[in-house]
Amino acid sequence: MSDGRSRISTDLDFGRDGKQVGYLNVPHSRDSSAWGTLLMPITVIRNGDGPTVLFTGANHGDEYEGPVALSKLARALEPDRIDGRVIILPALNLPAFKAARRLSPIDGKNMNRSFPGSRNGTMTEVIAHYVYTELLPLADVVVDLHSGGKSMTLLPCAVMHRLSDKALEARTMEALQAFGAPAGLVLEELDSEGMLDTAVEEMGKVFLSTELGGGGTLSVPTVAIADRGVRNILSHFGVLEDTPAPSVEPTRLMEVPDTDCYVAAGHDGLFEPLFEVGDSVAAGQPVGRLHFIEDPHRQPVDLPARRAGTLICRRVPSETERGDCVAVIAQDL
Amino acid sequence: MSDGRSRISTDLDFGRDGKQVGYLNVPHSRDSSAWGTLLMPITVIRNGDGPTVLFTGANHGDEYEGPVALSKLARALEPDRIDGRVIILPALNLPAFKAARRLSPIDGKNMNRSFPGSRNGTMTEVIAHYVYTELLPLADVVVDLHSGGKSMTLLPCAVMHRLSDKALEARTMEALQAFGAPAGLVLEELDSEGMLDTAVEEMGKVFLSTELGGGGTLSVPTVAIADRGVRNILSHFGVLEDTPAPSVEPTRLMEVPDTDCYVAAGHDGLFEPLFEVGDSVAAGQPVGRLHFIEDPHRQPVDLPARRAGTLICRRVPSETERGDCVAVIAQDL
Amino acid sequence: MSDGRSRISTDLDFGRDGKQVGYLNVPHSRDSSAWGTLLMPITVIRNGDGPTVLFTGANHGDEYEGPVALSKLARALEPDRIDGRVIILPALNLPAFKAARRLSPIDGKNMNRSFPGSRNGTMTEVIAHYVYTELLPLADVVVDLHSGGKSMTLLPCAVMHRLSDKALEARTMEALQAFGAPAGLVLEELDSEGMLDTAVEEMGKVFLSTELGGGGTLSVPTVAIADRGVRNILSHFGVLEDTPAPSVEPTRLMEVPDTDCYVAAGHDGLFEPLFEVGDSVAAGQPVGRLHFIEDPHRQPVDLPARRAGTLICRRVPSETERGDCVAVIAQDL
Amino acid sequence: MSDGRSRISTDLDFGRDGKQVGYLNVPHSRDSSAWGTLLMPITVIRNGDGPTVLFTGANHGDEYEGPVALSKLARALEPDRIDGRVIILPALNLPAFKAARRLSPIDGKNMNRSFPGSRNGTMTEVIAHYVYTELLPLADVVVDLHSGGKSMTLLPCAVMHRLSDKALEARTMEALQAFGAPAGLVLEELDSEGMLDTAVEEMGKVFLSTELGGGGTLSVPTVAIADRGVRNILSHFGVLEDTPAPSVEPTRLMEVPDTDCYVAAGHDGLFEPLFEVGDSVAAGQPVGRLHFIEDPHRQPVDLPARRAGTLICRRVPSETERGDCVAVIAQDL
Amino acid sequence: MSDGRSRISTDLDFGRDGKQVGYLNVPHSRDSSAWGTLLMPITVIRNGDGPTVLFTGANHGDEYEGPVALSKLARALEPDRIDGRVIILPALNLPAFKAARRLSPIDGKNMNRSFPGSRNGTMTEVIAHYVYTELLPLADVVVDLHSGGKSMTLLPCAVMHRLSDKALEARTMEALQAFGAPAGLVLEELDSEGMLDTAVEEMGKVFLSTELGGGGTLSVPTVAIADRGVRNILSHFGVLEDTPAPSVEPTRLMEVPDTDCYVAAGHDGLFEPLFEVGDSVAAGQPVGRLHFIEDPHRQPVDLPARRAGTLICRRVPSETERGDCVAVIAQDL
Amino acid sequence: MSDGRSRISTDLDFGRDGKQVGYLNVPHSRDSSAWGTLLMPITVIRNGDGPTVLFTGANHGDEYEGPVALSKLARALEPDRIDGRVIILPALNLPAFKAARRLSPIDGKNMNRSFPGSRNGTMTEVIAHYVYTELLPLADVVVDLHSGGKSMTLLPCAVMHRLSDKALEARTMEALQAFGAPAGLVLEELDSEGMLDTAVEEMGKVFLSTELGGGGTLSVPTVAIADRGVRNILSHFGVLEDTPAPSVEPTRLMEVPDTDCYVAAGHDGLFEPLFEVGDSVAAGQPVGRLHFIEDPHRQPVDLPARRAGTLICRRVPSETERGDCVAVIAQDL
User: Fold this and answer.
1) CATH topology for the E9-254 domain
2) Which residues numbered 139-168 in D keep a CB inside 8 Å of some CB on E?
């Protein structure tokens, strides 16, 4: 396969000062449009040679705080108020976003397992390849706004990884705290291959992610966290010349030490939570219960926590399949 | 068409004392099973000649407090603790429940617009016809547990209608207050044809409904309201010989006076709520906003409340179509 | 609704002597053909004023002995060999047949619950209405060839009903024995509303059905039974002037006395039969077993016969849903 | 079933002078929106007590000249230029139009076989019922703009029926000629039950239809015919006080005398036309040919005209099923 | 992955003189046929050692002039009339052709971006690999007959590329003019990776393509162009010993100099063309317009040409998505 | 792409003595479960250092003797009865098994063409990669239980390949005969790339497969063959310390010498078999016939055997597509 330049084109000039609002043109030949194009919205605001921050939303198509906060930011931000460059992609996996699904309906792929992508691959891979080869090299900092999506809801938090480059880890921790989410999650990613996170970190750049609510809905407080967080990041890196954001509560740092923190359903059933996000759970306590409504003779099954800690995530849809994650427990760092 | 007896059969004997756990056998010939049967779970507990309470859940298949609370009740209730009869159908629209959808995947029908049903009709109509002809005549009180379903979330409430039979209305109001939900909604149903509610009310029996949360998920507090409410109803009507339920806050009575209380989306877009359920809204204030993420040049559109009051319902899925209800406002009675 | 004549037309003249091979033209406006027509194959062979036998196949679209035996008969039969009239519809539910499904893919309906049909109804109802209003009045005898379809396999048999008109029942029994299938099933249909059977019987005409194998496949012996049976019927009623068919074994008469003869699956699972069609089963013996392959901790469940007798039917697809019929037991008459 | 007033509501006041642009609110509860509404665009322009003309488009959802010409008309028409009332429904079968299909994706129904509709029926029936009970009584003249849809293309023409009320037929013929299409088709509808046409004609009102191109596309000339025709009709009935439309060629009157004018495919195959719309065809000449590309050993099959005349319609999609209409031949009146 | 020989087999012997009509056997194991085979029709006609011309149709499955003209050619051509070898594949992407879709329904792939294919890849890749490894080496000239497909219609033309090998370009230009289409398009393909075109050109062989109409239909004139063109090509290369084809108009040579020649829709809407194929357009003139029928308050949007020239292509389906190409403008060479 | 260790994990310790029943945890992020896991049942029974036998079922998801016999074996086998290790995977392609389909519904792939798999590939490839990298290295013998699946039925047989390693071939032949199926098929696989068979054989290990019935159903005799066969294999390799299985008929050895033994349908049609599995067929005899029920004018087409022998396989579903295999003929070795 060729490793030439991406087939994605754009009328925007990333090196130009000023504000440009437009599209990435992603070729998308299909039955209903032989020479169709997917138009991915992008906004670039630049003023001089300060640092470049790349914001992405809808890496998973059913996570909405990112697209909304980033669309607002793209409309609001003017070049004369910044020093540096801000690149905003509110809907990274646009086909998934249009379908209101986690994964792309075109190829069934998870954008966040598709990096570094492929020029001649499927739609998701083609987008990942463009981001990897064209946008990441321009960026100093990448902030990828996730939420729990339709299947999960989380304690709103910013997320970073333990890194072997300790200087980069320290800078990332500063960014995480600057974001100003109620909680900060420091992850030891067991298998990070294919993630945007990994692609950025391996380039030695600051990468920050978030998990802001979920359930395929937006809420007033989680949108506020996202709105404030993206501006805080721009201030932190000196891109936004605003007065500093109003002081927020310090971020509570947490970790998910091992896979015992995940509680999975052992059967198909109807999931009843016994704790809500933010509650403290003791080891052995059932965090939820599976009901078998169709079989009136069958007893419900409890789903115990294997570790004590704070419930930071629970499943949203009641209907649950064997193997689905129903809860995640974190511990203070 | 014939108006003979329902084709649905059961091994249960509604006139027998004791506890019977079993199924309604609904004939369901289909491609994968020529002589298939849909087994609808049902529990009957009877002790003497006291009143009969019929409980139904999952009238809409994506509303879960009902099925869970009623399954628990069916397991827990023993005949020697009651005086009368309790009939429990935890999943009235079982095909919709199995599909985790509001409407039946078999015929696309809304169970709550299908009464009095039809012996030779579609699956939903056949079930409605059985309930109408076989179960309603046995009942003195019918409680139908709804929630908001996958598309809406509501302030947890019990629901009743204004009735022309004022004595029945008064008895219903007592039942509503006995249920013990935080709120009580008194509706002037504009077009109630086809509803289970109407079918029961026209027989001169007490009918109570609920709206308990929504979003296609269960929550710890809404399950607790349902668990407590069904027992409160049994105590209120003298069926459950328990000590009375622990005193709960009095129910706040509300109404939705007219269609101006509903806020609808005027465009396809991404819905951002600006108020949460339970918040007070002033007339003219936007209760939410539609974003057009795919079109970075298009401004969001505000969705103003036409009436002041309390937001008792909002849309859950962010993706929204023209005409979707995004909020409902109620006023104190 | 109008009760005018059917919209189905044909170039064939049922009153004309000779052999006519053609179509019923069923209007079928659809997205891909605004003025489309469904062409239902039909053959009419007539010679003088002898009795009229109407043969139908694929009343359910996944039952194949009928279509094959009737297509052969339609090609082979010449007017100079008969005395009377033979009308052959090899594929009554043509849309279901084309889709290789039991029910019509157009309206999801079971043809054999759609009589007397409706002029302005759905596709299945429109066909039933034509048969009811145009073909049944022409017929003296109706033979409707069924098999088990994709979900069931049966001991090959001819089938008739207990009738209140005892003279008609006797004539039907003679026809059943003349058909020459290995077995003959005499059914007390509990709920026969909507069946072609009922429509014919209520007109006081001889109606015979069959169940010949199944599993959505053809077999050498069951095709032979069908081939021979349709000619035997024509001989029996004096329509075919052939030498009589070679003597066959006498038909073993059986009945299915009550619903205890049906064995249903109580759970979703993988069905393992423990008896084959034709085997003798004692009451209480498990006729099959449900396995739960996905859950290695769960024990299989036995499915016991509630009555002794001969297994005349078992489920074919291993994957089985709660409520599916897995076996039917018959007793000698 | 109830025969009460339609559940469809609107903020528009049909009796008010001036121009009102808004929606019919069609209740549409569905899985993704429990209390959803289908918003059907409608425009009413009224000035005094002149006659009322009702225009409808997209009776079939894949016919586009109507929606476009009527949207333009609705935007352009101002009350001070008219005398009377114009009611414009650019997309009568809105769900079909949104899906770009002939039939409604919600219930699979053909709007033009669904009149007089039903209050409690399916979506298509509910819309038909509203039109029948609320709009037709207001109208003096109804013009329903059709095209060939995705499967057919036609010689652009206005269409009327032979009527038993000869005075009404004469007035309709005048309207047909006033419309100014290149051709005028006078049909003897064999089975008109359920059509909007019939509903209007039976009320003794002028009903005019059109067939303007097709193939699921718009063309410059057919849009021009529609744009001009709707204004000509308004002028003809004295509603539009414009100077008369520039003189157009007189309409060529044609008829389709019997079903021999229709040519149908006898097999599944790939349709190659041998004549285009407007060409003269002799009886016996093949109007097209079916190819069997997948079977290189099979010869193509010619599809001969059974009558001489002008080809006024041919099938568009090459892929063709047995029974599909591939051509219609008309004769000059 | 292995790079062994293709799994596709055939009974045809490409080296044998005479005419052979048969199939390529493409292994196609699937749910409904464990050991199924896709039978791709192929015809080989050979007489001695003259040049080999390979004709392919239905590279995209909804383009029909190729399959029809090539099926006719395959039936008509006899070895004694030729000098050399003609290999005819009327339906290159047979699964897409059977589904009447541009792309393969099996793997969603575009055949014309799948070269050189892969032995162990998906169905489309496996076919491309066979053509690349087994057929292209046999060919001196490849003619791949395209049309606009269901979404586009084009001015009928033959198509070639600017080539770095100028001698090959000159020979290709001679072939293009010999084909005898009304127009000839000379393309500077920006990104030709994966195309059959490129695969052939890189082997130093003459490659000619066409665009003949579209809209998923056939027309009398475009079929005639294809019929004549394929014979002209055979004559031009000395394979067909016919008298030369009757003189045709010289081909008008055109080019599409840059991406400004493409006009795309900026919104979802209903596309109304303002010019037809073959019309001259001035820079800045709107070539079409997007209507928003569902929103009666929203004005249509014009879609202006960015360059002057001749409209050689326009979108067919009125329903249009953001990013769809609605028109292409070419300029005389 | 990385070639690191599989992302599939398990709590089981393959090196531990005793019986462990659990799951392979296959990461399966999807729209309905962001952090979902597919739980593949696995049982490991170990006692000391004897040989390891790996059993797999449902390599194709619609083949059921394997899953049932292996689930029984996994429940019945206790460590104190064995010497060595038995690893049991009753449902290798679990997603296909859950969907009751041959191929995986997730990626459409054939598990038995997906070896050696890929760490970062699709679901089927990820499972194959785990088996290849983690389980095959542990095994001395691999037995993969196939049946005919939904589309075919076979003479019950064990299957092995001709191998270049003649010592391995001899040991495999001994295992084949030990299995005790009525027939043994020795195949010269023409294209074995991607098969589990090949993966094992290339490691120099004994690989045995079976074909036990089919039609997507289980039968009493084929389950018995599977139950007995898996125990016979364990006894043969000294793993099971049972008394030897009761003597069975010697296995009849057969081969399928070339592709002329396969009979394929040349048209779409309805397949009527003229021979059953186990019957002797002469060369030239029709083994079946294709009927064209929809076209009453078209004659059936015979499908002749090209070779004499025993029919060991025939198609099950009557509906048949061009290219489908309808019969396979084998010859005694």
Assistant:
1) Aminopeptidase (3.40.630)
2) none
